[in-house]
Amino acid sequence: MKRLAAASVTALASMAMALTGAPGAGAASDAGVSSIPVGPDRIEMHVSADCVPAQNRCFYRTSANLLTPGGPTGFPQDTWARQTITLRSDSQDVWQEAWYSAPAGVPRELKGANHNNVLSRMLKSLREVEVSVTYFGGGPIERFTTDGDSVPTAWTTGLPAKGSRFIVCSQIQVVYPGVNLTTPTACAQPIFD
């Protein structure tokens, strides 16, 4: 009976691995998390990035939440917060052609917008892009989630900068009664290859 149970467990594990499949071939991804304590809770900043060679672009997603003993949740209704997202490369010869959605799921932006009191803007320089998002009011985690994509581009050729590292970093300052804290910076750094 024990042998049958062990064989069943092995077969189920093999079948589960076959059904879930391997990660996408050629896709590079990375993620980072930072947090700061607030009494028994923590303010968390999550960052993930995924470079897809077949699409010649990298995708990123950031999310902030309050981690309570009961699990992750959004922020109180009287919250004000400002998030900064920086996109750059490890190469001085690369600039970012970027777009974003704040909150995630709204139409992509190139400059700035106001979606339900989530104000955002994008600032571009020679080698990096900064997205600034200001939140007036709390809500669920989805409200504090931003996503976007970028094409790391070589200045010298104007082509996608294959082989460079795509770096996404983010932090958030959160203010509500009794709290005024900024998370440490969280970063994701996949290779765009």
Describe the protein's architecture and organization.
This protein has 193 residues and is mainly β. The chain has a single domain, classed as Immunoglobulin-like. The chain is 10% helix and 56% strand. A hairpin with a 2-residue loop joins strand 11 (164-176) and strand 12. It is elongated, with a radius of gyration of 20 Å. 32% of the residues are buried. Mean pLDDT is 88; it is low at 1-25.
SSE topology:
Blueprint: H1 2-20, E1 28-38, E2 41-52, E3 57-68, E4 71-73, E5 80-89, E6 94-101, E7 112-115, E8 118-124, E9 128-136, E10 145-154, E11 164-176, E12 179-182, E13 186-188, E14 191-192
Antiparallel strand pairs: 1-2, 2-3, 3-4, 3-10, 5-9, 5-11, 6-10, 7-8, 8-9, 11-12, 11-13, 11-14
